[in-house]
Amino acid sequence: MPTYAEPAPSYDDVLAAAARIAPHARITPVLRSRSLDAIAGAQLHFKCENLQRVGAFKFRGACNAVWSLDDATAARGVLTHSSGNHGAALALAARTRGIPAHVVVPEGAVPAKLAAIRAAGASLETCAPTMAAREAAAVALQARTGGTLVHPFTDPAVIGGQGTAALELLRAAPGLDLLLVPVGGGGLIGGTAIAAAGAAPGTRVLGAEPEGAADAFESLRRGTRVTDLVADTICDGLRGIVGAVNLELMRRHGVEVLLVSDAETLAAMRLLWERLKLLVEPSSATVLAAVLRYPERFAGRQVGIILSGGNVDLDARFGAPL
Predict the structure, then answer these.
(1) Are 240 and 172 found together in one domain?
(2) What is the residue-wise DSSP string for 99-149?
(3) DSSP state of 185
(4) In a domain, 142, yes or no
(5) Alpha helices in 131-261 (DSSP H)
(6) CA distance 75 to 78
(7) In the 8-state DSSP scheme, what is residue 174?
(8) pTM greater than 0.90
(9) Which of 53, 83, 175, 274 is in Cβ range 3.0-4.6 Å of 59 for a Cys bridge?
(10) Among 101, 117, 149, where does a domain finish?
(11) For residue 127, is it within any domain?
């Protein structure tokens, strides 16, 4: 996909995105838990993007991308490839502007997330469950429809829009020492790093990544982008390979990635349910899992945590319809 050559967004772009999406996106709450603070030995501030429209932060970037288009371009529609949250977000964002949306989805995607894409009004096209197949199908779809390709994590407008979650968190909880977010393709971590550098230069940004999808961790460690890793993790939203522009943003802003196991992630997911009464998807729980796995990194600190989404397939998690 011809997106990696595009320039990374700036802090001004994040500010512009915040103004652009204000009529459409929710300002999600920042929640606290004394019991989780006690367990972590830190002051934790949870930014609840699981309560965002379509149940994930992805709506921010998709909305910014859709409303950045001029009228003539927008009229031809938008398209993307997605395993779930970005597809639903783009479909809903397109609906707010009254334009068509098309989404390429990989075989085996979470049924609940596919249902959300359909419910938001997009047309779906299925492809093989590889990133190469997804990208090839999206290019072919773009040629047929003439729509604008909105990449899930390398599009500058998407990255800028994702940074608005951190912007809100930093305004709601000034004085954070650390800001921790999940790492998948890198749209959220890239936008967060830009927002933090502009709004709170003293706040360090960290990423949480599954051990079974550690491409960003390995890319930073090796000094070159790792693209051949086959993900094996329960965190379906973090199985994508980190984008080139996203990795460069991580390097530029000194982002460090912390690895967590699936077992640790599920334990953290349960804790969030028990203590905050929040249902979050496994990808989202990686951040609390990282705090609990590396207590020495967070002890006594003010920590901002972005809970990225809450789209859980309950039938899959519990083995039977509820």
Answers:
(1) yes
(2) --EEEEEETT--HHHHHHHHHTT-EEEEE-SSHHHHHHHHHHHHHHH-PEE
(3) S
(4) yes
(5) 131-145, 156-172, 187-199, 215-222, 244-252
(6) 9
(7) T
(8) yes
(9) 53
(10) 149
(11) yes
- For residue 122, the domain's CATH number is 3.40.50.1100
Which residue matches tokens 């970005």? Answer: 86
Q: Are residues 76 and 210 in the same domain?
A: no
Task: With respect to residue 317, please indicate whether it lies within any of the assigned structural domains.
Answer: no
Amino acid in position 272: L
Shortest CA distance to 49 belongs to which of 203, 184, 168?
168
Range of the domain at 304: 11-56+156-312
* pLDDT tens digit sequence for 96-113: 999 999 999 888 887 877
**C-alpha angle 14-17-21 in degrees, rounded to nearest 5:** 145
Residue 18 CB contacts under 8 Å (≥ 6 apart), including other chains: 164, 167, 168
Structurally, the chain folds into a number of domains equal to 2
pLDDT tens sequence across 159-217: 999 999 999 999 999 999 999 999 999 999 999 999 999 999 999 999 999 999 999 99
The confidence score (pLDDT) of residue 135 equals 87
Q: What is the pLDDT of residue 312?
A: 85
* CA 252 from centroid of its chain's CA atoms: 19
Domain end, chosen from 105, 132, 149, is at 149
DSSP, residue by residue, 31-81: E--HHHHHHHTSEEEEEEGGGSGGGBTHHHHHHHHHHHS-HHHHHT-EEEE
Do 28 and 65 belong together in one domain? Answer: no
The helix/strand count (H/E) of the chain reads as 15, 10
**What span, in angstroms and rounded, lies between the C-alpha atoms of 204 and 193?**
8
- 171 and 46 within one domain: yes
Token pair, residue 153, equals 């994590």
